[in-house]
Amino acid sequence: MGPGRGGTCQVSAWDHVFLGLFWMYNAISVVIFHFSWKMQSDVWGTISDQGIVTHITGGNFAQSSITINGWLRDFLWAQASQGIQSYGSSLSAYGLFFLGAHFVWAFSFMFLFSGRGYWQELIESIVWAHNKFKVAPATQPRALSIIQGRAVGVTHYLLGGIATTWAFFLARIIAVG
């Protein structure tokens, strides 16, 4: 249904705000990740008694940063392993925080790309379960508007992304430190 029949073309002033926030976060993240990996690869390290410099990531920035797979494999996946595999160590709180925040961040895409469809389906499933088990039979779902769905999505995206990035770097610094 188009704008002439009471529908919407799904473009509003708020969409520009949400897209601006989305791309602002992405641009800032690229700068932060670039700086962090470059410093670990080429600047930060230790000097042995013989004067040999050993960098934290073995100097792989120049070689791996030219491809997306290099960023995923040698930076994100390789460096997130300390946080993800931190069960039973002093890093376990950061690992759990990283995984939880990553879930919140990934959950945001359901709102950002689908508008409100998945959200409404989830709510209706929860309401059905409440009615079936007579937990709260008077509860009725209310549909989110498209703008509300996107607002929820961009909020989850920003907060989940910031928390994931924070936990990622903190676990990495503590593991290396």
UniProtKB/TrEMBL annotation:
One GO cellular component, as annotated: chloroplast thylakoid membrane
TM region(s), chain numbering: 17-37, 91-113, 154-175
Pfam families registered for this protein in UniProt: PsaA_PsaB (PF00223)
Family matches, as InterPro entries: PSI_PsaA/B, PSI_PsaA/B_sf
Domain of life: Eukaryota
Alphabetic keyword roster: Membrane, Transmembrane, Transmembrane helix
GO biological process, one term: photosynthesis
Gene3D superfamilies per the UniProt record, alphabetical: Photosystem I PsaA/PsaB (1.20.1130.10)
Name of this chain's protein: Photosystem I P700 apoprotein A1
Native organism: Rhynchospora breviuscula
